[in-house]
Amino acid sequence: MNLPHDDRPTILVVDDERLNRNALAAMLGLEYRVLLAKDGPGALVHAQREAAQLQLILLDVSMPGMSGYEVLGALRADERTAGIAVIFITGQSDDAAEEYGLNLGAADYVSKPIRPAIVRVRVRNQIHLALQRRALERLAQIDGLTGLANRRHFDAQFERAWRRCERTGCPLGLALVDIDHFKQYNDRYGHVQGDEALRAVAQTLQAHARRPDDLAARIGGEEFTLLMPGDESLVQRIEDFRQAVVAQAIAHADSSVGPTLTVSCGLVVARQLEHITPTGLLQKADALLYTAKSQGRNRTVAWTQS
Ligand SMILES: [Mg+2]
Q1: Spatial separation of the C-alpha atoms in residues 43 and 35, rounded to whole Å
Q2: Distance 61 CA to ligand 1 centre (A)
């Protein structure tokens, strides 16, 4: 049984023989959260459902129906599970089988009869690598200055949100945000303070990314975006954000808008994704942002697809 908030690394053990499953679970259960599957299809169900938490799969090669090799192929073919490390468990100790499995993309090999000390070391090595990989992936998704998502991560999440909303029919909201007269701000106050202002706006934007699927990102120098799948009150939310920036009262003596730092926002809420493309949606948001700028800045211009 797993505790509700078990944050230990998760391992999936796949073996058609119950004795092997139980032995491995007993061997690893103190250090790790262990899931069990007795065949290939069961393994794939677990892997897909737990992909975000799953660091390692111990996979028996020889199982009736679907072999371990086939399971690995199916894991690699699914983007959700493609990155999960796999250690093969095999009774065949010949080099050819080992080479075959490693060529398929297995991270390592353990052979039966299982020697607990060897299993523990190999598992620990792979878990260590998997955690490092995840940490690096997270770093590669973050804008170093503000801590928001970076452009690359935004692009990937935008595509994902698009596909999900297309499938479920939920609306997709996208706001583009630009700090007004930011060049003049930097010229007057210097880049160090300019960076402070970027961080302050980023923090305020992040505070308005309220739901788990919302994503606040920095996509250019002083340009941000808020991606909001499936909401109904987006105009109000972006307006709240804009006013929260005003309320921060960051002095901007060279702004034509007023005495403090402000932002302009272009917001698109798409309801029928079949009538628009991702690029079209971004261009629309950009055009609305431009309109907000030309109408005097410090405002939101929104368009909701009817
Ligand atoms: Mg077997």
Answers
A1: 9
A2: 7
CATH annotation of 10-140: 3.40.50.2300
User: Ligand 1 centre from 13 Cα, in Å?
Assistant: 12
Backbone torsions φ then ψ of 171, nearest 5 degrees: -70, 155
Query: Is 222 a catalytic site residue?
Result: yes
Instruction: Select the CATH number that applies to the domain covering 151-304 from these four: 3.30.1130.10, 3.40.50.720, 3.30.70.270, 3.40.50.300.
Output: 3.30.70.270
Q: What is the percent of the chain where pLDDT is above 90? A: 79
Task: Write down the pTM of the prediction.
Answer: 0.71
57 CA to middle of ligand 1, Å? Answer: 15
Strand order in the sheet with 215-218: 215-218, 223-229, 172-179, 263-270, 300-304
Check residue 1 and give its pLDDT: 46
